Amino acid sequence: MKLSVNKAHYPVTVLGYGRRIGIWTQGCSIGCKGCVSQDTWVRDANRDIPVTDLLAWCREMANRGLDGLTISGGEPFEQADALAYFLAEFRSFAECLPRPVDVLCYSGLPYERIRREHATLLTQIDALVPEPYVHKLPGKPLRGSSNQPVVPLTPLGLERYGDPDVYGGKRFQVAVDGDQIWFVGIPERGDMARLEEYCEARGLVFAGGSWRG
Ligand code: SF4
Q1: What contacts 39, CB < 8 A, 6 or more positions away?
Q2: Distance from the CA of 38 to the CA of which of 57, 73, 98, 99 falls in 20 to 30 A?
Q3: 143 CA distance to ligand 1 centroid (A)?
Q4: Is the C-beta atom of 110 inside 6 A of ligand 1?
């Protein structure tokens, strides 16, 4: 079983509780206007990773201290079978870790549709952020646009995400990978253009950007 992955990172500290593994899936057919992750839209067989390899990497990262796993995309539910397999295996080893580990998952699909079509998969998730990104709406803590709820699905999800406002404040992580820079976090509308202007004024010109339509 393989999961198509755009990137994976540890530690992610700006998308959920504590120190987390972040996995961004590859492939999204929703096409929200203003999406900042357009590099994740096209399915690409070169990005398919055996779930067993991904789990081995997660185990390695968990040894450094783990509070949670954030799944984003791309659209994770477009790979529902591989995601279900990955999450079942991930949760079974995470249960043995010294600290509670939550799973926070993002989706651009409507919550009611996910409930209807992926009820079993939802049992592997502690908190879900569903609904498409709406460019004209302002963001909220943990969310790109204010129409997106944070839905706790388990007691741990409720404990950590019952009040998403505790994750307020603008926070970004920056990672460098070869000649690419990528950002972890949820920008407000116009933030990426402002960041480009700021960098250009200091001599750093971006050749491309996943936030450009
Ligand atoms: S915001 Fe998410 S759901 Fe919407 S197009 Fe971008 S990756 Fe897909």
Answers
A1: 6, 210
A2: 57
A3: 12
A4: no
What is the token pair recorded at 183?
Answer: 């950002």
108 lines ligand 1 (CB under 6 A): yes
Angle of helix 80-94 relative to helix 51-62, nearest 10 degrees?
30
**Considering the entire predicted model, what is its pTM?**
0.94
H-type alpha helices, the chain: 51-62, 80-94, 111-117, 119-122, 155-161, 191-200
Residues shown for the chain: 213
From the CB of residue 148, how many other CB atoms can be counted at a distance below 10 Å?
24
Ramachandran angles phi, psi of 56, nearest 5°: -65, -40
Q: Which residue type sits at 191?
A: D
- Domains in the chain with CATH codes: 2-212 (3.20.20)
Inter-residue contact 74 to 26 (CB < 8 Å): yes
